[in-house]
């Protein structure tokens, strides 16, 4: 490759790296951007279109990362007709884009409200994730220390013990030392497989959360940690449904049509719930009973029915969403604290048991050595 070719390749690589960095940075700050864009659209900004807004942001010099992205979005707007799903593809999460596409099809007012709701929901979810990580961090570190100690048994502590007491015949080893030796052999053979299996199980669990449906999932959603996923996805489900059912001028979307749009703009689990709600609607259920599919806790159903009776379906769903948001955060905090203590105490118990076992083995080998020397 010529020098010019190398320069071109390096420049292209640098451009892609800068684009990736800008996307990653804005994705982390997307709640603020959603709110910013909603406020600009709500204010009218002189009747500017999305294309004009993006061009204006691209011309600003105060935020070079956003300017770089806005320039690309303006180009995509010109070629893609202003569909935000296409404009923001690869920058923001797909589930956000599906929701915004649905709202955009419902009108400008719905899009502004969707951006505001999405900003609130994003802050809620990101805050919940941050709280969960910070709460569980100590427990996870303790488990890693325990795993490291277990890995050290066959590769360090057990060989050191056998070398220290290598003059003691194995037939004089007591039951504690023999059990420890067998445990060391088992760890050396099976610990990597056990840790790999645990990682596979955890990965499978995480991947199954948005995909697993059916009767078993209905039962699992009543218990942690599935109930946490249900609460946060149910929150998004109700937010989108309330948004679609909000009157747009003289147009009011039917619940059946709104459910179809929710199913088309959500993951497998949410689409399954939308189908179940639609089936209950076809069966003649009305009010909050339509949503009695395991989408949220039963006690929220009574509150939802009261809100629907008092304010109508769209406002009732929004009030229920606010109640569900409070419940989800409280439940997340309580369960995270409980799991942190379970992990911490479990790891501590394992470490203390392992240390006590080592002392017992040393004492066992010391007695065996005394017996061996006394018999010589």
From TrEMBL:
The keyword Transmembrane helix applies. The chain crosses the membrane at residues 136-156, 189-207, 338-362. Keywords: Membrane, Transmembrane, Transmembrane helix. This is Integral membrane protein.
